[in-house]
Amino acid sequence: MKKRKLVHCNGKYHVILPSGWVKAVGIQEGDEVTLEIDDEDFHRLIIKLVKKS
C-alpha cells in the first residue's frame, strides 16, 4: 500500500496525495491548495498552492 498525506481539510473537502509526490513538488501537510480539471484533458487534475501553512 502506498503512503498518502492529507494536504488540506476545510471541513468539507479533503485533499489526499501520494507522499512522494507531495515532497517532489514542495507542498506540505496543512498547505491550502486549489483543484482544477484541465479544460483540454479531463483526466488531468491541476493542483495549485494557495497558501503555505
TrEMBL record:
Taxonomically, which superkingdom?
A: Archaea
Q: What GO terms are given for molecular function?
A: DNA binding
Entry-linked Pfam families: MazE_antitoxin (PF04014)
State the UniProt keywords alphabetically.
DNA-binding
Tell me the ranges covered by the SpoVT-AbrB domain, including all copies: 12-48
Is DNA-binding there in the keyword field?
Answer: yes
Which InterPro entries does the annotation name? SpoVT-AbrB_dom, SpoVT-AbrB_sf
Name listed for the protein in its UniProt record: AbrB/MazE/SpoVT family DNA-binding domain-containing protein
List the source organism: Methanobacterium subterraneum
